[in-house]
Amino acid sequence: MKRVLVTGATGNIGREVIHFLNELNQECEIIAAARDVESAKKEFLGYPSLSFEWFDFENRNSFASAFESIDTLFLLRPPHISEVEKYFQPLLLAAKESGIEEIVFLSVQGVEKSSIIPHNKIEALIRSYGFKYIFVRPGYFMQNLTTTLLAEIRKNHTITLPSGHAKFNWIDIGNIGEATAMLINSFPEYQNAGYDITGTENKDFYQVTYLMSKVIGTEICFNSINPLSFYFKKRNEGVQKGFALVMTMLHFLPRFQEEPEISENFEKLTGKSPTRLVDFIEREKIKMTPAQLDVS
What we know:
3-stranded mixed β-sheet, globular
């Protein structure tokens, strides 16, 4: 039986990957990798066949036991980790020594054009160690509106980023999880290539906040600031240096790149259409409604 280890299991993407792998009802054992195994077990009470392993990206002592007898590793980059050589080089060496042959890595759309971002370096490391691989390259997460950007939306009715009029492709993480599960399930068919997983809409943040304002019923404004100001804004808010730098790059560099290409890979893999941004905002509008407008 094929054994698949899912890192970041309790995060947004990891949880979706596990959900859709489980739905496929395939002949494989799914193992959730987590820093706090007991807490993870509580989050996955509805998955009786799910196994768990202790795993911490920042603790090399966790690698050998988690990687033992694993066939396919689903790997992602925690947002706060940007030092690729320090964290991912020993991780990948441990995976190699444990006999793991297949890696499915959650990368980012346009990674091949941005050598400065960590995902590019991780892809290069995976190739250099001779793994069979699949690089999942999604567009911009719709869920950023309900996670990293949410506090400002609710408090100030604003989104502040250094992205200007740069357009981003908007994709639901549920769509990413489903496509990733399909790729893992049919790994030999898709191996040694990268796959963009996108939605059907490219929109800048002026357009997105306009759409949010219409759906939510109150004005949400977009403020574009220079990248240095944004970086120090994040640092002053307590965001770790590495994460603040990556956030700055991911939102600033698209200003100098071509508009994202829209891929049909999601439809080809699943036979479905990806989530529309307006439907996502409608689905999540209670969460995104500014605090002073909450109705008790």
